[in-house]
Write a structure and sequence with these properties.
By secondary structure, the protein is of the alpha+beta class. The protein has two domains: 20-201, 3-Layer(aba) Sandwich (Aminopeptidase); 208-305, no CATH class. The protein contains eight helices and eleven strands. The protein has helices spanning 61-68, 99-110, 173-187, 203-223, 230-243, 255-262, 266-276, 298-305, and strands spanning 20-23, 26-29, 47-50, 57-58, 80-85, 88-94, 125-133, 141-150, 157-159, 161-164, 196-197. The strands form three sheets. Strands 5-6-7-8-10 form a five-stranded antiparallel sheet, with helices on both faces. This is histone acetyltransferase. Its EC number is 2.3.1.48.
Length: 309
């Protein structure tokens, strides 16, 4: 089930087992129970030490300190870099090739996700790790969160699970990972791949994705489709307006048109448009056309509500 990064829950689970974790030089509270092996992590564990590079875990501070000095991933995360900008990077790794890493990451993530079900059967998933490296200290990177996706999804899911670790939340990093998931979908086949997050979404996940979809559609209306030249698109808009003399510039498009241009599922486009307040289906034609209603004057109304680039 797809889960979005979220704020601390109003009430932490009393039976969550591990109460706090140490991740590198950070110490913070857990939210939920995770199924760590009881022979290694007892139910009354107060502090669990987790390697910030490989997510191996121990209840022994000395063993933790010894491991961090020799961790094989202390200088670079596993996998292949698929995104890089401003110190942030996303690394793709195969759960089959990095099975132990993926399992340990999943166990750690469960401490902050209420409904996560995949912990050990990781071979059918790809994992995308978000890191940040300070340019002033290029040998020292931090893992901030991740998302996973099935290698083969019959439901066109481009994301299965997403989490930004608690110390790094409220920095728009979840939105960054969502954007990467859609970018990867566009690379998967010629002409792009229409997909979305795995359902059902948590309430927080639904709100996070709705905001992301709204912004994605608004960008399309104002700057053109993802991957296009925004300056050229804006110039074409201006030329079209001039050609129409003083008449308001209006466009007609279908929900399907928007979905194809943005790589979004029709149902997700409709959800976003309703939240934007620009949902205006036609009253006529209730068969096939009812599934893809016309949306007159959309670009103008969007520009008034979303003053973005």
């Amino acid at each position: 089930m797809a889960r979005g990064s979220r704020s601390t829950p109003s009430k932490q689970r009393a039976d969550r087992g591990v109460k706090r974790v140490v991740l590198g030089d950070l110490r913070f509270q857990t939210w939920f129970h995770s199924i760590y092996p009881e022979e290694l992590v007892s139910k009354d564990t107060d502090v669990l030490y987790v390697c910030r590079w490989c997510f191996r875990y121990t209840c022994d501070a000395g063993a933790y300190a010894g491991h961090t000095r020799v961790c094989e991933f202390r200088t670079s995360p596993p996998g292949v870099k698929v995104y890089e900008h401003g110190g942030y990077a996303v690394w793709e790794l195969d759960g089959e090739d990095q099975k132990l890493f993926a399992q340990n990451l999943s166990l750690f993530a469960k401490l902050f996700l209420d409904h996560k079900s995949v912990f050990f059967d990781v071979t059918s998933f790809l994992y995308y790790i978000l890191t940040y490296t300070d340019p002033k200290d290029p040998e020292n990177y931090h893992i901030l969160g991740y998302f996973s996706k099935e290698k083969l999804s019959w439901d066109a899911n481009n994301l299965a699970c997403i989490l930004i670790f608690p110390p790094y939340q409220h920095k728009q990093l979840g939105k960054l990972l969502m954007g990467v998931s859609y970018k990867l979908s566009g690379w998967e086949c010629e002409g792009g791949f229409i997909g979305g997050p795995e359902r059902p979404l948590s309430e927080m996940g639904r709100r996070s994705y709705t905001r992301f979809w709204e912004e994605r559609i608004a960008r399309y209306f104002l700057l053109g489709p993802p991957g296009g030249d925004p300056d050229e698109f804006v110039q074409q808009k201006q030329n079209a307006t001039k050609a129409a003399k003083k008449r308001p510039h209006r466009e007609r498009m279908t929900v399907r048109d928007i979905g194809l241009a943005t790589g979004m599922l029709t149902e997700d486009v409709i959800t976003a448009l309703k939240e934007m307040g620009v949902w205006s289906p036609t009253w006529r034609a209730r068969s096939a056309r009812e599934r893809h209603p016309r949306l007159p004057g959309m670009a103008t109304r969007m520009a008034e509500k979303f003053m973005i680039w």
